[in-house]
Amino acid sequence: MSEEILKEGGSTASSITVAGTDTALRKNAIGLPEVLFQSITAMAPAAATATALSPAIPFAGASLPLAVFLATIACAFIASSIGQLAIHIPSAGGLYTYISRSLGARWGFLSAWIFLIAQPLLLPLVAIIWGPYIEGLVQTLTGVDIPWYVYSILGNIALFALTYYGIKISADVSLVLGAIEITIILALSITMIVAVGSHNDLRTFTPVYSAESGLGGLTGIFQGLVFAFLAFVGFETAAPLGEETTNPKRNIPRAVVYSAIGIGLLYTVASFAGVNGWGIPAIQGYAASPAPWADLGKKYWGTVGPIILRFAIVNSALGNGTAGLNATSRVAYAMGRVGTLPRVFGRLSKHQTPGTVILIHSLLSIVISIGLGLAYGTATAFGLIGITLTLGLLLLYFASCISAFVFYRRERPQDFRVWQHVIVPLIPVIILCFVFASQVYPVPPYPLNLALPVLIVWLLLGIVYMLYLNRRTPEALERGKEVFLADSEKEPTGLMSGLL
């Protein structure tokens, strides 16, 4: 069966043949609300607030809000760079296609290879969250104690079914789950800020409370930033839905940018409220608590508080898993479609979803979450998986910022702007350099120090595989640049016009 491929920057279209009978994702299946909440639920606001930010406190201390605010600025600028590319390159490949078109097919393939270790790890990461939290919630409500890994397995099975049977179903569920978790976290944050009143300390937005004193406290802030970025991971996951979204050249940039800024502001408010609500003198107890926001819920909402917060976190983790499955399966599908992964990855189910990829991803999630959770404990496993996937995605963010500059300078010189395509990408690139440096020295404790070596080994394997592809099927690498969407939608003249 043939598919039209729109080649941006040219006037001709070509076609290729992909094995299988159903090769097209369902076009116009979702709109702006669904694709926006794809990014929002992929960030898992409630789970990230309650779990991802806590490991930053041993480094950033009570200056956690400063680390979160810096991450918000950086991610807003990264989102802007990704949005600039999404205007002209709507594709299920997402960042893979963007980087391939901008920096070349080989850099694009390596970006996709990194994506295939980073983004899929989101599912086992949140399985380690929902498992223990459901265990605690069920035990509180019924007195029955079932091991956390049982719930992790059941959750993975449920999410497989949800994402296999169609993007519309899973996107609608994500919208509902995302709205619930945002409401709960924002309500508790406002409750704490009002209760603390005049004792709220704005110095938490400075390095004064950093636990690491180097560089005037900035060392601790930059070490803590990797966990702050972990809370943001996922805002880019709207991009792989470009072939299934109405008006993708407007709605994908909107989803990426709106989610990064909106949830970043939520994190900033929540971290400020949490630090002050807990009490700055006792802030290390925040990091030591296995469920700090459940503790805060009990402190400010009484006995019903922990139940509400545990529900919100479980809700958030499941929403995150849904969005992660959707994003990962679309990129793997795009790679299978062009031949950089085995063709089986490029086949769709009768529901027009990448069923094979969804199944493989779900099975790997069960193995990784339970294996590492039992080996290291869920808290340590969370840190190891979280740092590994965050460093991988930060590399992709780094490449995306550079891609925005190169793409507009080379392919869209008439639209090139110094502020949008030089200054905006450069700021997060500088911040990301400091974050990576902080992961090299001082060396994190074991087993968190395994994250960087694991990523390096994976990247080396990708280089070897790319050299093999370059020798056997170089045309497959080049196809990574192509957009499988003959879309007649008028392009916005720039990011700002696309966002309005």
Describe the structure.
By secondary structure, the protein is mainly α. The protein has 20 helices and 2 strands. A two-stranded antiparallel ribbon has the order 1-2. A hairpin with a 6-residue loop joins strand 1 (2-6) and strand 2. Helix 1 crosses helix 14 (304-338) and helix 6 (105-118) packs antiparallel against helix 16. The chain is globular and about 60 Å long. Mean pLDDT is 86; it is low at 1-22.
Task: Offer a quick outline of the entry.
The protein is an all-alpha fold and 500 residues long.
Find the structural class using helix and strand composition.
mainly alpha
Instruction: Report strand %.
Output: under 5%
Oligomer: single chain
Distance between the termini: 38 Å
Number of DSSP E strands: 2
Task: Report the mean per-residue pLDDT as an integer.
Answer: 86
What's the order of the H and E elements? EEHHHHHHHHHHHHHHHHHHHH
- The strand line-up of the biggest sheet is 1-2
**How many helical stretches?**
20
Radius of gyration, taken over Cα atoms and rounded to an integer in Å: 22 Å
Percent of residues in helices comes to: 55-70%
Largest sheet: 2 strands, antiparallel
- Shape designation: globular
Low-pLDDT segments, ≥5 res: 1-22
